Amino acid sequence: MVAGNIYIKEDTEAMQLIRQWLKRFGLSHWKVMTDRISVYQVSDDDYGIGSELVGVSIDDAPYSATIHHTRKLTEEDIIHELLHVRHPEWSENQVNLTTHLLLKQKEKVMKFYNVKLKKSVEVDEKDVKLVTMKNGRPAAKASVEIDGVTHNMFKIIGQAEAAKLSS
Ligand SMILES: [Zn+2]
């Protein structure tokens, strides 16, 4: 990937999402890099030079792939490209459909900021407990095990979010 070298920047957020989805797809042994390329490095027979592109290539080294992208990667891009890695036999349609379903499921998680770990932790809404504090404000409570340690997390939430949780 000599041409793209100067653009390679390990976007922490993207790399974190990649690791998370690799694990979810049972591909933790894979090493997936990101490669930011310029639109001027992309040519398309139908549209000429300067096309947007997000695509994955399987590299020569075993279990390694690279996601090439001309714009900032979204979580949807990451799920989509990793599904291609997981299921090379799937059609574009199948990949799109599954990506959509996985993103929809994701809406059912709540993010807590874990002060001890200094990172945000996603908790399935079914494992989140809604509580009301003395001043009447709603809050969410969750207890999750991370690397064998139980973390209790607490978060003040808005009325709308509380209504969504209790429904
Ligand atoms: Zn695709």
Descriptive notes:
The strands form four sheets. Strands 1-5-4 form a three-stranded mixed beta sheet, with helices on one face. The radius of gyration is 20 Å and the shape is elongated. The chain is 29% helix and 33% strand. It has four helices and ten strands; from the N terminus they run αβββββααβββββα. The protein has two domains: 5-106, Zincin-like (2-Layer Sandwich), CATH 3.30.2010; 109-166, no CATH class. By secondary structure, it is an alpha+beta fold. The N and C termini lie far apart (50 Å). The structure holds zinc ion. Residues 80, 84, 92, 95 line the site of zinc ion.
What portion of the residues fall into strands of 2 or more residues? 25-35%
> What is the C-alpha radius of gyration, as a whole number of Å?
20 Å
* SSE-based structural type: alpha+beta
Arithmetic mean of pLDDT: 88
Number of folding domains?
2
In whole angstroms, how far apart are the ends?
Answer: 50 Å
Instruction: Tell me the major beta sheet.
Output: 3 strands, mixed
Instruction: Find the CATH topology of the largest domain.
Output: Zincin-like
Q: Total strand count, please?
A: 10
Q: In which order are the strands of the major sheet placed?
A: 1-5-4
Number of helices: 4
In short:
The protein has helices spanning 12-24, 75-86, 92-106, 159-166; strands at 31-36, 43-44, 48-49, 54-58, 64-69, 109-114, 119-124, 128-132, 138-146, 149-156.
Which helices and strands occur, and which strands form pairs?
Blueprint: H1 12-24, E1 31-36, E2 43-44, E3 48-49, E4 54-58, E5 64-69, H2 75-86, H3 92-106, E6 109-114, E7 119-124, E8 128-132, E9 138-146, E10 149-156, H4 159-166
Parallel strand pairs: 1-5
Antiparallel strand pairs: 2-3, 4-5, 6-7, 8-9, 9-10
The site of zinc ion (ZN) has 4 residues, from helix 2 and helix 3.
